Amino acid sequence: MIYTVTLNPAIDKTIVLDSLNLGHVNRSLFSRDDIGGKGINVAKVIKKLGHNVVAMGFIGRENSNYVYKKLYEYGICCDFIEVDGETRTNIKIVEEREGRFTDINQLGFETDNFDLENLIKRIKSRVNSNDVVVLSGSLPKGLNVDTYKIMIEKLKEIGVKIILDAEGEALRKGIEAGPLLIKPNLNELKTIVNCGESLEDIKKAVSVIVDKGITTVVSMGEKGAILFNKDECFYSKPIKVDVKSTVGAGDSMVAAFAIGIHDNLPFEESFRLSIAASTAKVTKEGSQAPDRNEILKYLELVEIQRR
């Protein structure tokens, strides 16, 4: 089984404009609401690819019914711990004329270490040794930067396979606990290591992480993506498509790796699926997940090079 953990979920409201005129009244062309947060976005793609998944984490009690309703529509099983307050709403502004994307992310509810302990207990009561657990996204107010480190240490006691997708100190601390795989984008990588933007610079920067046995996937937007582990290095250039939203592109990559690890696929195959999934995702509005056939359509177009 694959589990995703979202500590700070969100309702993503995407507003599409011709162009944003700052300081003036703007009228949208259309808008859409999706339930999101990185772990939930991962769960949506896993489900679209035909795998079972359980979404866990925290959820705000005040608007929990809406979140449950959306997850039910997606066919995603969930087991959240409800906390006081409401799940945050994130605004995604898409300017069609400029091809520009602006995110306005709210803080959301507040939790504490007692809530975290309860969540860890609940996860440990469900997972088995060969399960895959995805820990991803920002931390809600009230939790320390070592939250992911604590969770990884506790879950590794069971022997689960852990993917971590975070940034800044939360990522740095999490790496200390030794997850199986991390997937920062280039900007997130720069929050934890001194790094240039060439492939050789990135390879050198992540060597200290890879030497710890942590497979590292770095997404670089228009420059493609690169995967490193102790034995292999793969690069994939991007597939040119009409980009409608970049929200959830990295999460789609994580979903592919979760499936690959769960199914014991070679990392090159998982990498290929991840590129296809992220490509299909950016052709969709908002944080809407691509369908399986849309992902498979791009699979044969992925070009992977050994480096």
Automatic annotation (TrEMBL):
Gene Ontology MF terms: 1-phosphofructokinase activity; ATP binding; tagatose-6-phosphate kinase activity
Entry coiled-coil feature ranges: none
Biological processes, Gene Ontology terms: carbohydrate catabolic process; D-tagatose 6-phosphate catabolic process; lactose metabolic process; small molecule metabolic process
InterPro entries for this protein: 1-PFruKinase (IPR022463), Carboh/pur_kinase_PfkB_CS (IPR002173), PfkB_dom (IPR011611), Ribokinase-like (IPR029056), Tagatose/fructose_Pkinase (IPR017583)
Listed pathway(s): Carbohydrate metabolism; D-tagatose 6-phosphate degradation; D-glyceraldehyde 3-phosphate and glycerone phosphate from D-tagatose 6-phosphate: step 1/2
Enzyme Commission number, as recorded: 2.7.1.144
Keyword annotations of the record: ATP-binding, Kinase, Lactose metabolism, Nucleotide-binding, Transferase
GO cellular component: cytosol
One protein family per Pfam: PfkB
Record domain Carbohydrate kinase PfkB: where: 34-290
Enzyme class: transferase
Function: Catalyzes the ATP-dependent phosphorylation of fructose-l-phosphate to fructose-l,6-bisphosphate.
Family (UniProt): Belongs to the carbohydrate kinase pfkB family. Belongs to the carbohydrate kinase PfkB family. LacC subfamily.
Protein name: Tagatose-6-phosphate kinase
